[in-house]
Write a structure and sequence with these properties.
Number of helices: 3
Strand content: under 5%
Radius of gyration: 20 Å
Number of strands: 0
Structural class: mainly alpha
Helix content: over 70%
Order of helices and strands: HHH
Shape: elongated
Distance between the termini: 54 Å
C-alpha cells in the first residue's frame, strides 16, 4: 500500500507500521520472550543443580538471571544495562548449548 499511496497517506502508513513494529518488538516480543525464557532457564537450572549436573545448572541459572535482567532493563528503559545483559545472555546461552550438547553426546540425560 505504501508505494501506491499518496504522500499524505504514505506518512500515515509509515506511522502505523512504526507503531506496530514498536509494540511487537519492544512490548510483546522482547519483554515476553525474555521473561518466559528467564523463568525457563531458572527452573531448568534449579532442577539440573539439584540433580547431578551442578555445573550446567549454575550456567542455566546465570542464563536465566541475565535473561530476566534484560527484560527488566527494557521496562526501565536503561539502554546500557539492556545491551550488557542481552550480550551476556547470548554468550552464556551459546556456552550452555555446547555444554548440554557434550553431555548428551557422552551420555543421554536421565
Amino acid at each position: 500500500a505504501y508505494p501506491a499511496a499518496a504522500p499524505e497517506t504514505q506518512q500515515i502508513v509509515k506511522a502505523n507500521f512504526e507503531l506496530i513494529n514498536t509494540v511487537v518488538y519492544s512490548g510483546m516480543w522482547n519483554l515476553l520472550e525474555m521473561f518466559f525464557a528467564g523463568a525457563w532457564w531458572l527452573f531448568a537450572g534449579i532442577l539440573l543443580f539439584k540433580g547431578k549436573y551442578k555445573g550446567i545448572g549454575i550456567i542455566s541459572i546465570l542464563t536465566g538471571c541475565f535473561s530476566l535482567l534484560d527484560g527488566f532493563s527494557a521496562i526501565i528503559e536503561n539502554d546500557i544495562l539492556h545491551e550488557i545483559s542481552l550480550n551476556v545472555y547470548l554468550y552464556i546461552s551459546i556456552i550452555w548449548a555446547f555444554w548440554i550438547g557434550i553431555l548428551i553426546y557422552r551420555k543421554p540425560l536421565q
